[in-house]
Amino acid sequence: MIARETDAYRLFGEPKFGGILIVSDHASNRVPEGVDLGIAPELMDQHIAVDIGVGAIAQIMAQRPGIAAYCAHVSRLVCDLNRGDHQAATIPHVSDGHAIPGNDLTPEAREARLARFHHPYHGALSQLLNDAPPALILSLHSFTPRLATSDEARPWHIGVLYNEDDRAARIAIPLLEAEGLIVGDQLPYSGRVLNYTMNRHAEAEGRPYLGVEIRQDLIGDAAGQALWANRMADICNKVALNLP
């Protein structure tokens, strides 16, 4: 099922012209050879290292005709692919209160890590989108019900994020609400703040996209992942068919 695999990304299924391409920047908790983050191993299974559940959802969705999934193959703690290469948070020193001592890099080591992961990830994604332009990009993320550094609860089942281009969002939100879901419009994050990959590859090129954050406790097991994979595949097809 893996169509292509590199140090930076994995591609599931074959992208189709006019199909749906899932892009999941935080789908993996992999720490590659030669990288030592200097943190407790159990932290790699938590939300600071990976968007829990989204990798499995992307792979299930990619089994459907016309859907492919482009997924990060490296933990966001190694290189956060949804940040610009100039941003400090791209190779974070702290995440949700946890220090990441292995990311205290020299400028040369930082550039080497970006060249190993960030640049090839975004270069290959650009090529993929040019070679087989999709009808819709699904930017797939998940969020924790509560941050360790905050007492604020996050009641939404799913958040829909966008920057200037809200074409897909305006179609998707009522469809999701019709399923009885609590939908956050620009919650728990705003796509006007955290939207690097879609800003670069979708907004800048006029490509329609649907950015979503699914709450992690809903997709932490196989049953939840299958439910949400089928739900999102159906929603994405409806959005793609109704785009202006």
TrEMBL record:
Pfam families the record matches: FGase
GO molecular function annotation: hydrolase activity
Keywords (A to Z) from UniProt: Hydrolase
Protein name: Putative N-formylglutamate amidohydrolase
